[in-house]
């Protein structure tokens, strides 16, 4: 499951189209509306959390952009749930920035949030689902 | 019958444990003791060596009895949190397998599948004390008229719950690489193309069956640490194969011995039984398992002192050879190299990645050590050793002894 906070700007031409409906129906995405300012014949703005399968999510974003909606992805970060992480090291196979690395000889798996690029590669790979995407709500 | 300088019995060691006088060390700590004192002296001073491992072990599951209902049901199809359990047993007994995905899981239809929730997760939820939704269906009989039961159950409410794992604790395992041109998703984790990473899955010198390669002390009835509680070795595991080629030191050069284990699920802990999702592969259960090895004589001390540099894992290509079952091995690599973070594969430096947690394996060995030191855990003397234990292995013990 992939989730992101999005700020969508609807130009006047597309404000009347059932874009969100299509997003839900054609791409099986779920949304959680946080703010909406839409008036007929005027530019509209929606802030929402969108979630779904990563592949559907990507296709959904593509659809939005193609439809003429300006999409801004709000800062999100990846954090580790220390309760769930059991220190195996599987995630170090995919982490491109070495934010996840093994401390030797203890063989403990460390997470350096400062080095994390929030690419989310670890999120699917972690067997314990310990790497979580967190939305930075303050940035909205 | 070999002549040993040290001859201790299970009874003697158990007497010392009961008095709180047993000397217990972990399989990592014994290495230095044997180095300093020699094998015979180590066997004289140390009574028990504790081992540990913490890895996904797919051949795991739980036998659950959910209690007779009113009116009674002879369940033929059962789900727990929507994960199907095998109900082809008597009325309210089921077997819940760790790798069973939830009924509506999209599997690998959207590749690689995420396998978010399955049997292993149900087991962890139960052990964590969470309520689990049970649905049972039946065709109805004269004696069991009920055709459907639906209720929430917690582990404490179940009359019986037994963790029963047909194959755990592999003695050695493959080191997996992928020589193909695309990333593949396996039970050995994600493998990047052109040997982008090499994944391995045992605790090395701390791992139970590396410390007793000829099963001199492990057999039916051995009492063990299982999932945070007490369990037993109840039989050789499925695919137990002691005849695999071994190195000069007697250690198998590939997957060999396995254990069938069971224990009371109600006394286990969610810290040592973790439901996991292996991307593109399926669900599983990560099991914490530790075995105490009594130092009955110096030969056993010799085996327990094994170090990572003497343990070799076969390197296998999961891009081609494993799915085609060619049996080809690319070479062998020591656990010292595997734990170092990189290994050499035909001149290419490859990142090594552990799938089993050494941190938790150490925790298991340490906990088991404390239980024995406190007199809470007695050794179980096997009523029968595992197949392969009768192999003659001449250890040059005397020459190495100080
Ligand atoms: S893969 Fe998950 S559980 Fe394993 S070390 Fe990384 S974050 Fe922790
Ligand atoms: S999100 Fe990407 S960079 Fe951050 S820890 Fe995970 S894999 Fe590494």
Describe the structure.
The complex is a heterodimer of chains A (140) and B (402). Chain A has two domains: 2-73, Alpha-Beta Plaits; 77-135, Alpha-Beta Plaits, CATH 3.30.70.20. Helices cover 19% and strands 34% of the residues of chain A. Chain A is built from three helices and eight strands. In chain A, strands 2-3-1-4 form a four-stranded antiparallel β-sheet. In chain A, strands 5-8 form a two-stranded antiparallel ribbon. In chain A, strands 6-7 form a two-stranded antiparallel ribbon. Chain B is of the alpha+beta class and 402 residues long. In chain B, strand 24 and strand 25 (348-354) form a beta hairpin. In chain B, the strands form seven sheets. In chain B, strands 3, 4, 7, 10, 16, 17, 18, 19 and 20 form a nine-stranded antiparallel β-sheet that branches. A four-stranded antiparallel β-sheet of chain B has the order 6-5-8-9. Chain B has two domains: 10-57 and 164-385, no CATH class; 61-163, no CATH class. In chain B, helix 2 packs across helix 3 and helix 3 (39-45) packs across helix 5 (298-304). Chain B has helices spanning 10-18, 29-37, 39-45, 119-127, 298-304, 321-324, 335-340, 358-373, 397-400, and strands at residues 24-26, 48-50, 53-56, 61-65, 77-80, 83-85, 93-97, 132-137, 148-153, 160-168, 175-177, 184-186, 189-191, 197-200, 219-220, 223-226, 229-236, 259-264, 273-278, 282-290, 292-294, 312-317, 331-334, 342-345, 348-354, 384-385. The chains are: A alpha+beta (140), B alpha+beta (402). Chain A binds chain B through residues 1, 53, 55, 86-90, 92-94, 102, 104-109, 124-125, 127-129, and chain B through 54, 56, 110, 112, 114, 116, 189-192, 196-197, 199, 274, 276-279, 284, 286, 339-341, 351, 353-360. The structure holds iron/sulfur cluster (2 copies). The site of one iron/sulfur cluster has 14 residues of chain A, from loops.
């Amino acid at each position: 499951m992939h989730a992101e906070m999005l700020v969508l700007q609807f130009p006047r031409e597309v404000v009347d189209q059932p874009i969100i409906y299509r997003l839900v129906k054609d791409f099986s995405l779920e949304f959680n509306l946080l703010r909406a300012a839409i008036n007929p014949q005027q530019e509209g703005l929606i802030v929402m959390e969108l979630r779904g399968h990563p592949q559907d999510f990507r296709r959904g974003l593509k659809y939005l952009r193609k439809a003429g909606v300006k999409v801004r992805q709000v800062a999100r970060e990846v954090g580790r749930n220390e309760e769930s992480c059991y220190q195996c090291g599987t995630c170090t196979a995919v982490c491109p920035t070495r934010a996840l690395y093994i401390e030797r000889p203890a063989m403990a798996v460390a997470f350096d949030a400062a080095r994390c690029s929030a690419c989310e590669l670890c999120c699917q790979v972690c067997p314990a689902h310990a790497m979580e995407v967190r939305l930075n709500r303050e940035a909205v | 019958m070999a002549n040993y300088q040290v001859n201790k019995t299970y009874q003697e060691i158990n007497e010392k444990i009961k008095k709180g006088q047993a000397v217990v060390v972990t399989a990592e700590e014994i290495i230095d003791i044997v180095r300093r004192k020699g094998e015979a002296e180590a066997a004289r001073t140390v009574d028990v060596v504790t081992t540990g491992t913490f890895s996904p072990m797919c051949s795991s599951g739980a036998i659950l009895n959910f209690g007779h209902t009113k009116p009674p049901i002879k369940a033929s199809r059962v789900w727990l949190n929507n994960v199907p359990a095998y109900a082809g047993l008597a009325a309210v007994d089921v077997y819940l397998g760790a790798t069973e995905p939830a009924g509506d899981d999209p599997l690998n239809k959207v590749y690689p599948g995420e396998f978010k929730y399955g049997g292993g997760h149900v087991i962890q939820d139960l052990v964590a004390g969470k309520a689990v939704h049970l649905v049972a269906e039946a065709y109805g009989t004269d004696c069991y008229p009920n055709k459907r039961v639906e209720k929430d159950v917690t582990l404490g409410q179940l009359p019986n719950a037994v963790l029963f794992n047909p194959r755990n604790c592999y003695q050695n395992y493959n080191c997996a690489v992928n020589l193909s041109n695309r990333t593949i998703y396996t039970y050995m984790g994600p493998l990047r193309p052109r040997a982008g990473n090499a994944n391995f899955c045992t605790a090395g010198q701390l791992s139970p069956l590396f410390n007793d390669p000829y099963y001199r002390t492990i057999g039916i009835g051995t009492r063990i640490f299982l999932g945070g509680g007490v369990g037993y070795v109840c039989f050789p595991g499925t695919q137990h194969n002691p005849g695999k080629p071994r190195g000069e030191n007697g250690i198998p050069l590939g997957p060999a011995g396995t254990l069938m284990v069971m224990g009371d699920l109600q006394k286990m802990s969610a810290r040592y039984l973790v439901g996991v999702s292996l991307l593109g592969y399926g669900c599983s259960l990560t099991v914490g398992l530790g075995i105490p090895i009594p130092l009955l004589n110096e030969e056993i001390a010799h085996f327990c002192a094994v170090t990572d540099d003497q343990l070799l894992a076969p390197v296998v290509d999961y891009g081609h050879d494993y799915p085609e079952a060619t049996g080809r091995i690319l070479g062998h690599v020591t656990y010292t190299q595997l734990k170092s973070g990189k290994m050499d594969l035909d001149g290419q430096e490859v990142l090594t990645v552990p799938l089993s947690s050494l941190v938790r394996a150490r925790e298991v060995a340490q906990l088991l050590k404390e239980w024995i030191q406190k007199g809470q855990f007695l050794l179980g003397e096997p009523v029968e050793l595992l197949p392969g234990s009768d192999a003659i292995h001449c250890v040059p013990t005397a020459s190495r002894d100080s």
